[in-house]
Design goal:
This protein has a 7-stranded parallel β-sheet with strand order 8-7-6-9-10-11-12, with helices on both faces. Strands 2-1-3-4-5 form a 5-stranded parallel β-sheet, with helices on both faces. The chain has helices spanning 15-23, 44-51, 69-73, 93-99, 112-127, 130-138, 172-181, 197-202, 210-216, 236-241, 259-268, 307-313, 316-324; strands at residues 5-10, 28-31, 56-59, 80-83, 102-104, 164-168, 187-191, 206-207, 219-222, 247-250, 273-276, 296-298. The protein is α/β, with parallel strands linked by helices.
Length: 340
């Protein structure tokens, strides 16, 4: 490995530490433009130019500028594409595999539990109407009777049933959300056709189909990847099946919900509220109708981020170095038959 070129297409938070680590191995770093984060952009041609002759591509997510086959084909020496995130849905992994290029991501546990904690915060803030109450007090008002919160857990004294939490996807994050809410004595139901019944039982979660979950949940939180079966799964039809006082939470992938349908459901009162950390296109454009809605909480795709998690994510740079040395990657998501 003699001064390999690494194209950093989108610097992650804490980039200085990642870059310093790579420079210690005499890597030649080329850094992309921060403007590439602009929504609805098309930076493929510029990225192709910078990727030329690179042995590695590295970076966080830029939704408008995915790592395409053309970008990877720009360098015959490219050996690895490394994401400083857990998701790789913005990399053409199938093309990379065909080209003999490894695709790696940060260790899965880097931020999964942080996302679960962020989801719990979303649900509590929504149910207790914290942002609305905060705005009321700062506006000089006091104890608005319309801002009544909900009690989450069951009560034996008066047989109050408590809320029903619906979880779409019972993987690491979904299961952790269930664990965190277990002491609250809520009814927790989940839908996940890929998870064993044993995992449902172990986490105290009732297994249901999607229609039952939509119909019976007071709060629904999505924890699924953006794959063909989940893209747009929360559309006008799904929102119509939900309770009118239900909440929708998405800290997974923006493509899981259809944003225009969600806006309409919130405006019409089809559902009571939403909390979103992810969006169809990121960052949100300033003319997004979501900004005008009082019943939605918006955060900038940072539900799982913390200083410890970002340090953990930077470990993907170690995989880059391993691959460039001819060693095996620890966090690869594909295994090309003939790796470069």
């Amino acid at each position: 490995m003699d001064n390999p070129k690494i194209f950093i297409f989108a610097e992650p938070d804490g980039a200085a530490e990642c870059n310093a680590k790579l420079k210690s191995y005499s890597c030649d770093l080329t850094v992309g433009s921060a403007d590439w984060h602009s929504p609805q952009g098309n930076n493929e041609e510029e990225m192709i130019g910078l990727a030329s002759d690179a042995q590695a591509l590295l970076g966080t997510s830029i939704r408008s500028s995915p790592i395409t086959r053309k970008i990877m084909e720009a360098s015959p020496e490219l050996r690895v594409v490394a994401k400083c995130t857990v998701g790789t849905d913005d990399v053409d992994v199938e093309a990379a595999t065909e080209l003999g290029i490894l695709v790696c991501h940060a260790p899965t546990e880097s931020n999964c539990y942080g996302v679960a904690e962020g989801t719990v915060a979303f649900i509590l803030a929504s149910v207790k109407k914290l942002s609305q109450r905060d705005a009321q007090v700062k506006d000089g008002k006091w104890r608005d009777p319309n801002l009544m919160g909900s009690y989450l857990g069951r009560r034996s004294t008066d047989n109050y049933p408590g809320m029903t939490l619906g979880i779409i996807g019972l993987g690491r994050i979904g299961a952790r959300v269930a664990q965190l809410f277990a002491p609250w004595r809520m009814r927790i139901i989940a839908c996940d056709p890929y998870i064993s019944d044993e995992r449902f039982i172990r986490n105290g979660v009732e297994k249901v189909d999607l229609d039952t979950l939509l119909r019976e949940s007071d709060a629904i939180t999505a924890h699924v990847p953006a794959i063909p079966s989940t893209v747009g799964m929360f559309n006008c039809e799904a929102f119509r099946k939900m309770k009118p006082d239900a909440l929708f939470i998405n800290a997974a992938r923006g493509k899981v919900h259809h944003e225009a349908d969600l806006v309409e459901a919130l405006k019409s009162g089809e559902i009571a509220g939403a909390a979103l950390d992810v969006f169809e296109d990121e960052p949100l454009t300033l003319d997004s109708p979501l900004f005008a809605l009082p019943n939605v909480i918006l955060t900038p795709h940072k539900a799982g981020q913390s200083e410890p998690s970002m340090k953990r994510m930077s470990l993907v740079t170690e995989d880059v170095v391993r691959v460039l040395k001819g060693e095996d990657a620890r966090w690869a998501v594909n295994r090309p038959a003939s790796p470069r």
